[in-house]
């Protein structure tokens, strides 16, 4: 099942993705022959994250839509080109640095003995098809295509073998980074969590549709030029190990996001004289097998209030 957040009917709505189109599910309640018991109330992503029974209900709604598509008015369908961040206010956004061997090699660093963890804040979240404004405090903007884990159940001190049982699903992510701010001090935070630096989406794909997150291809294009391509099986620390490891130190809760690291091919990994940082008008695309495409456009300056 594919679940998205969109702005429709003048509010934040939950939508299901059917054949690359979005259907805001609240509209179903106005359909005469829709079985109301399948969706007894207005449902948000926050509701789904905190109620496993609602996820089952959504799966039933998803199946109903797929078998009754002809009954749904064409005007009700929305495009996947523009969506909101799949989770609005996660308690935690945890990121992993240096988690692909070739990426470690291109940065001329050592393979870490433990996962390198840092964080972003919710202010950095952005949806699909959105503009990220670059402001005027950084000049070395870079892309990082990543698999993002969305936690679906509370977990603390879970085993590596059971870790994926606590996952709601997966989505594309772009760990946008300002390298000049990232390395200004020994802490990366400033260069990782400016507004819009964590585009995610366009939707969550539930874990039943991604049985093996260790066998996905991650790709990134800038203005149509392929810059990154690698397999999640090349991670130093697998998704299940990351959940296990992090949960030894802190309780993960529904809606928490884990950016699992980026493959080689980032601008930072190029020889200094060849680096051409992202600039005004650049378009970045992230695509991971089965997770759709995440599109982001960079723009100079700040949004007009």
Characterize the structure shown:
- The chain is of the alpha+beta class.
- The chain has two domains: 2-76, no CATH class; 93-300, Fumarylacetoacetate hydrolase, domain 2.
- It contains five helices and 18 strands.
- The strands form three sheets. Strands 1, 2, 3, 4, 5, 6, 7, 10, 11, 13 and 16 form an eleven-stranded mixed sheet that branches. It has a five-stranded mixed sheet with strand order 8-18-17-14-15, with no helix packed on it. A two-stranded antiparallel sheet has the order 9-12.
- β1 (2-8) and β2 (11-18) form a beta hairpin.
- The chain is globular and about 65 Å long.
Distance between the termini: 37 Å
Question: Stretches where pLDDT falls below 50 for ≥5 residues?
Answer: none
CATH architecture of the largest domain: Alpha-Beta Complex
* Largest sheet: number of strands, sense, barrel closure: 11 strands, mixed
From the alpha-carbon coordinates, what is the Rg to the nearest angstrom? 19 Å
Cα shape? globular
Mean pLDDT, nearest integer? 96
**Top-tier CATH class of the largest domain:** Alpha Beta
**What structural class do helix, strand and pairing data support?**
alpha+beta
Task: Determine the CATH topology of the largest domain.
Answer: Fumarylacetoacetate hydrolase, domain 2
Assign the CATH superfamily of the largest domain: Fumarylacetoacetase-like, C-terminal domain
Amount of helix? 10-25%
Number of separate domains: 2
Number of strands: 18
> Helical stretch count?
5
What string gives the helices and strands in order? EEEHHEEHEEEEEEEHEEEHEEE
* Percentage of β-strand residues: 25-35%
């Amino acid at each position: 099942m594919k679940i998205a957040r969109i702005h429709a009917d003048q509010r934040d709505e939950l939508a299901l993705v059917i054949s690359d189109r979005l259907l805001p599910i609240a509209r179903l309640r106005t359909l005469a022959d829709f079985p109301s018991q399948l969706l007894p109330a207005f449902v948000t992503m926050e509701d789904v994250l905190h109620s496993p029974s609602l996820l089952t209900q959504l799966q039933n709604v998803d199946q109903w839509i797929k078998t009754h598509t002809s009954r749904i008015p064409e005007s009700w369908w929305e495009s996947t080109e523009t969506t909101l961040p799949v989770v609005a206010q996660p308690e935690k956004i945890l990121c992993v640095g240096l988690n692909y061997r070739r990426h470690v090699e291109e940065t001329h660093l050592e393979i870490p003995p433990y996962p390198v963890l840092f964080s972003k804040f919710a202010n950095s979240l952005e949806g699909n098809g959105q503009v990220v404004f670059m402001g005027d405090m950084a000049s070395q903007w870079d892309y990082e295509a990543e698999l993002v884990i969305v936690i679906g159940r509370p977990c603390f001190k879970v085993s590596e073998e059971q870790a994926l049982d606590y996952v709601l699903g997966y989505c594309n992510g772009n760990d946008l980074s300002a390298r000049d701010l990232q390395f200004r001090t020994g802490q990366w935070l400033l260069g990782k969590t400016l507004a819009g630096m964590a585009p995610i989406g366009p939707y969550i794909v539930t874990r039943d549709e991604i049985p093996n997150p260790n066998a996905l291809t991650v790709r990134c294009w800038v203005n149509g030029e392929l810059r990154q391509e690698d397999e999640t099986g090349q991670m130093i620390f697998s998704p299940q190990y990351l959940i296990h490891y992090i949960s030894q130190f802190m309780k993960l809760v529904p809606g928490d996001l884990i950016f699992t690291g980026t493959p080689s091919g980032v601008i930072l990994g190029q020889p200094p004289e060849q680096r051409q940082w992202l600039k005004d008008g650049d378009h970045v695309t992230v695509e991971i097998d089965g997770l759709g495409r995440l599109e982001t456009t960079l723009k100079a300056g700040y949004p007009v209030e």
